[in-house]
TrEMBL record:
UniProt keywords, alphabetically: Flavoprotein, FMN
Name the record gives this protein: Flavin reductase (DIM6/NTAB) family NADH-FMN oxidoreductase RutF
Pfam family, one: Flavin_Reduct
Source organism of the structure: Fictibacillus barbaricus
Domain Flavin reductase like: residue ranges: 20-176
Keyword Transmembrane helix: no
Length: 203
């Protein structure tokens, strides 16, 4: 076993250990509206559920030299966003939205994805997604870095509406094999669902 002190590592080295160890990571494909009305979208792989009471999800959105990304800035301004679960059917388009575009250019247009109206928020969703969750902002917490230049924004959203493809919905549950979700690994690598197995919790 190799023992390593993270304080003796560079930012890049810590990033490689974290992203190479915490795998596979679910991906949040997030759409937001700018104050000028541009529909932005981007994928984030520091993402998970927090609680079901109420349904809260969290996404860590890294800053660049302390400057917020479009997603954080838009979510803070509008108070809402939509999270989609990427799957094999449109993952290449999701990857295209990671391009570094100016705030007034839409990644949705770039990737040739299809906007669809939401029911409870003003931010459109993406029609290609088999699961999308309309969210309102619960909290946005700056973390890491320095007080003047935080490293990331922890975006916590409360789910106010689910949209689930009928092909996936089975007796109140989602069929993971039919969803065909895509997870993030290190570098440019991704993973598919693969083999699954069950373990009963001990009494």
């Amino acid at each position: 076993m190799i023992s390593i002190d993270p304080e003796k590592l560079s930012l890049k080295e810590n990033y490689k250990f974290l992203t190479g160890s915490i795998i596979p990571r679910p991906i949040a494909f997030v759409s937001t509206l700018s104050e000028e009305g541009t529909l932005n979208a981007a994928p984030f792989s520091y993402f998970n559920a927090l609680t079901a009471n109420p349904p809260l999800i969290a996404i860590s959105i890294g800053r660049k030299d302390g400057v917020q990304k479009d997603t954080s800035r838009n979510a803070a301004a509008k108070g809402e966003f939509v999270v989609h679960i990427p799957d094999e059917s449109y993952i290449e388009a999701v990857n295209q939205t990671a391009a570094n575009l100016p705030p007034d250019e839409s990644e949705v247009d770039l990737a040739k994805l299809t906007p669809v109206d939401s029911l409870k928020v003003k931010v459109p969703g993406i029609a290609e997604a088999n699961i999308r969750m309309e969210c309102v902002v619960e909290q946005i917490i700056p973390l890491g870095g320095t007080p003047e230049k935080p490293a990331t924004d922890l975006l916590i959203g409360r789910v106010v509406h689910y949209h689930i493809s009928g092909e996936l919905y089975e007796n109140g549950r989602i069929n993971a094999e039919k969803l065909r979700p895509v997870g993030r690994l290190a570098g440019t690598n991704y993973t598919k669902l693969g083999e699954t197995f069950a373990l009963n919790r001990p009494e």
